[in-house]
């Protein structure tokens, strides 16, 4: 009996299992078919967009949800350079769930940014960028159409009028040149005072104020002294700003991260708020005292444009006031951190290589002497100094990536299909350390930019990637180069910089939008008695 019941039970179980098997298989089969059909549809719709003969961009396999985020490491410029050795100049990674194109190789960058410039000039719509300048930034916002073009033109014209135009003082210099030379003299005086008091100083802390004074002068007609708390509270925010605004921040690519509480993101919002309120204070004062017959500075000229509701004689574009005046925010922000970082790296290399410092000083003594200050027009006669500046830009590559770009339409590059709207990282660091372009790329050697007869090798200089290329190329390049040259030559003509015996320099760089070296104390001594300039 029990055996019969047992057998019946067994038979029932087998039937049930068979039924379940049948039904599960049917459900699974159905689900599998749907998934399969969807995948095929997806592949087909993707393939449909890929023009015949184009290839899919190669890259490492992404993990679900996080993509290749762990492959980026603390130094994404180095990780992505290594990746380009495996996958080539055009490669694709995934950060979080979003695909990101990474471009390397000088020729590939020239092809994308110059020859196919219109296809690659966009800016991606990134979360951190939306927090900069209240989302109105010309540099960081995703607008890359007519409005961006009109704003960029305004910025270029304003810089030309208030920086590059000849000074009315009949000195033969341009407006900004006179200011830089004066500011460099104040800086040397400050260094001398610090040496008398403490014997050494942190150059970055003082260079940043001098450089900020140049852009403050151009934008607002204002100058600060080195201890001014208001200015210091703004210029000292750049390290935190650069760490968050750097290329490849996961918060820009993993949507959930923007909703999670983050102290870094809170600090970033606060930095942007402080920065904007600093700028707005000047803008409001300028509105109150504006006189269209006496345009004093860049802010006034932008107010004038916003009141006349025009960009220039040939433009029909109408820009809202805030889109015009906000340009000053972009110029001020871009105008001091980059140049301070360049000068700070320069001083580090000079202290680390005293023989190079001596060569520059010998060149300055021979060409300029000690009776007058260096001027921009001396540049052509100072090839070694110019070679040093190029090598500082190349070796430090302190802007490892440009600001991220994005494609404005479906396109192809080197035979690869690139869809519209993909975020594009431009690896400037890779170009500047590419062994195919540079002999011993990790050696600091200004001579690589000199011809056998000691003149400058322009072709080599043009290989250095530091201001970007093409339609998004830095609008402040001429001013940036001028400031680095004049601050540096004025300082080196009068001062010798060194480190105390036995102290080590830490030349490692900290990743960010602009990469900084570790702050350090240096010492200096006057090469001859200074002329008197009072701050
Ligand atoms: C050594 C100094 C400087 C360096 C190395 C530098 C570098 C750069 C780089 C790499 C970019 C991004 C290009 C791209 O996205 O493809 C850029 C953009 C920009 N720079 Fe500079 N820059 C310097 C100085 C300046 C100065 C002095 C100003 C203004 C007074 C300035 C204003 C700008 C602006 C407004 C943009 C955004 C352009 C746009 O999006 O259309 N820069 N710069």
UniProtKB/TrEMBL annotation:
Keywords from the named record: Endoplasmic reticulum, Heme, Iron, Membrane, Metal-binding, Microsome, Monooxygenase, Oxidoreductase, Transmembrane, Transmembrane helix
Annotated binding of heme, by residue: 474
GO biological process, alphabetically ordered: hormone biosynthetic process; progesterone metabolic process
Membrane topology: Peripheral membrane protein
Names of required cofactors: heme
First and last residue of the signal peptide: none
InterPro entries: Cyt_P450, Cyt_P450_CS, Cyt_P450_E_grp-I, Cyt_P450_E_grp-I_CYP1, Cyt_P450_sf
GO molecular function: heme binding; iron ion binding; steroid 17-alpha-monooxygenase activity
Family note: Belongs to the cytochrome P450 family.
Protein name: Cytochrome P450 1A
């Amino acid at each position: 009996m029990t055996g019969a019941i047992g057998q019946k039970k067994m038979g029932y179980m087998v039937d049930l299992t068979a039924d379940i098997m049948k039904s599960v298989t049917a459900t699974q089969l159905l689900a599998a078919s749907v998934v399969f059909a969807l995948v095929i549809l997806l592949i087909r719709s993707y393939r449909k967009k890929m023009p015949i003969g184009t290839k899919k961009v190669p890259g490492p396999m992404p993990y679900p949800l996080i993509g290749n985020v762990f492959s980026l490491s603390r130094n994404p410029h180095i990780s992505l350079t290594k990746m380009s050795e495996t996958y080539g100049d055009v490669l694709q990674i995934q950060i979080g769930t979003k695909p990101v194109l990474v471009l390397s190789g000088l020729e590939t960058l020239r092809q994308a940014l110059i020859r196919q410039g219109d296809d690659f000039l966009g800016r991606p719509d990134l979360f951190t960028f939306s927090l900069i300048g209240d989302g109105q930034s010309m540099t960081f916002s995703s607008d890359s159409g007519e409005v961006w073009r009109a704003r960029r033109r305004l910025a270029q014209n304003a810089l030309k009028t208030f920086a590059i135009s000849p000074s009315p003082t009949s000195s033969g210099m341009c407006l900004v040149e006179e200011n830089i030379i004066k500011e460099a003299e104040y800086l040397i005086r400050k260094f001398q005072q610090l040496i008398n008091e403490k014997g050494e100083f942190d150059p970055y802390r003082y260079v940043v104020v001098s450089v900020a004074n140049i852009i403050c002068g151009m934008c607002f007609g204002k100058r600060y002294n080195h201890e001014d708390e208001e200015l210091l509270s703004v210029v000292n925010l750049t390290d935190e700003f650069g760490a968050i605004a750097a290329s490849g921040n996961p918060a820009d690519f993993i949507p959930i991260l923007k909703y999670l509480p983050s102290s870094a993101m809170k600090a970033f919002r606060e930095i942007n708020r402080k920065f904007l309120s600093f700028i707005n204070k000047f803008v409001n004062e300028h509105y109150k005292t504006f006189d269209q017959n006496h345009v004093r500075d860049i802010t006034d000229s932008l107010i004038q444009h916003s009141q006349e509701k025009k960009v220039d004689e040939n433009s029909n574009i109408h820009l809202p006031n805030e889109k015009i005046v906000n340009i000053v925010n972009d110029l001020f922000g871009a105008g001091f951190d980059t140049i301070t970082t360049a000068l700070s790296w320069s001083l580090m290399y000079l202290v680390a290589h005293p023989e190079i410092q001596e060569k520059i000083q010998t060149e300055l003594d021979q060409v300029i002497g000690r009776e007058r200050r260096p001027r921009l027009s001396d540049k052509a006669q100072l090839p070694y100094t110019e070679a040093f500046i190029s090598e500082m830009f190349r070796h430090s590559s302190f802007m490892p990536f440009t600001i991220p770009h994005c494609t404005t339409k479906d396109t192809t590059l080197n035979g690869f299909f690139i869809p519209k709207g993909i975020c594009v990282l431009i690896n400037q660091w890779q170009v500047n350390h590419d062994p195919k372009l540079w002999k011993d790329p990790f050696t600091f050697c200004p001579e690589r930019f000199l011809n056998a007869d000691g003149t400058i090798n322009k072709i080599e200089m043009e290989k250095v990637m530091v201001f970007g290329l093409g339609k998004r190329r830095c609008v402040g390049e001429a001013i940036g180069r001028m400031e680095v040259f004049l601050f540096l030559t004025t300082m080196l003509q009068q001062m010798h910089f060194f480190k105390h015996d036995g102290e080590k320099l830490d030349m490692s760089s900290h990743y960010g939008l602009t990469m900084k070296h570790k702050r350090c104390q240096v010492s200096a001594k006057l090469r001859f008695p200074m002329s008197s300039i009072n701050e």
